[in-house]
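dude i think i finally got it to work??
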Amino acid sequence: MTRETEKARKKEAKEALQSQKIWEKNTSTSRAPLQRVRDADIAPAEAGEVMTNYFGKQRTYIDAAQHIARSRVQFPRE
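look at this
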């Protein structure tokens, strides 16, 4: 008997949601809004980070990319 009343209640709730507009419905964002990430929330990279998860060739590519990125920051193009 409780199962039938639960099914009827869920069916009524579903029908009520179908007639509502999207701004009237509860979405996941309205229940718990997204958090915005700020630059201060992200810790700066350490100068001598240990790259233990990368193989030799990957480390070489990463070091080269970091060197290029640092040189572009120091001497921006005009």
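Residues 56-74 form the longest helix (19 residues).
im so relieved honestly
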